[in-house]
Specification:
This protein is an alpha+beta fold. It is built from 8 helices and 4 strands, in the order βαβαββαααααα. Helix 1 crosses helix 6. The relative contact order is 0.13.
Length: 191
């Protein structure tokens, strides 16, 4: 049975889920809508969002909530999540590190005062982003430069690629040139 992925426009928070489904060659349909439309689907009982937020994945009438949990579920379902506890830790800590990035940047993107947005953006670009990239680069280098954990692709690699695609290589993101320049300082991530 195919998967149905419901998420808020634009694609950012659901990107790793879509990429995982694509990589696994799973059959899926994406339902990207404004948040009001998603809430209407929930109110009408057509979609179940256990925690009231999106993305939500549905298969065979069963609904899965919370992006990181969905990614882990898909990883286990398609052999993209390690059975080894130490490798699973590497995957999980990388997934959480990506969440740290999102939690840092979303409030900046939602800031309505342009002066405050610029100040917080410059601070993130100067301090947080380089440290975040350095940590991910170090993690990859420690494992040979190709994968976060083990010797094959996991959902952590897919999540990392997704955030690179959505944030660092997306011309629509504020501070795009600065983000790309910071990213390009880490050759192992670029590769």
């Amino acid at each position: 049975m195919p998967f149905n992925l419901y998420h808020q426009e634009p694609y950012g928070r659901a990107e790793a889920i879509k990429l995982t489904l694509w990589y696994a060659k799973a059959e899926y349909t994406v339902h990207a809508h404004p948040v009001a439309d998603l809430q209407a689907l929930v109110a009408d009982g057509k979609v179940k969002a256990d925690f009231g937020d999106f993305p939500v994945l549905e298969r065979d009438g069963k609904f899965y909530s919370k992006g990181p949990a969905i990614i882990r579920y898909l990883g286990r379902s398609f052999g993209l999540y390690p059975e080894d506890a130490a490798q699973a830790y590497q995957v999980d800590s990388t997934l959480e590190h990506v969440r740290d990035l999102i939690y840092k940047l979303v409030p900046i993107a939602l800031e309505t005062d342009e002066a405050v947005k610029k100040e917080k953006g410059v601070d993130a670009l100067t301090n947080f982003i380089p440290a975040w990239l350095a940590a991910e680069s170090k993690r990859l280098e420690a494992n040979g430069g190709n994968h976060i954990a083990g010797d094959k692709i996991t959902v952590a690699d897919i999540q990392l690629y997704g955030v690179i695609r959505v944030l660092f290589r997306n011309e629509k993101v504020p501070f795009h040139e600065q983000l790309l320049a910071a990213f390009n300082n880490f050759p192992v991530l670029v590769a």
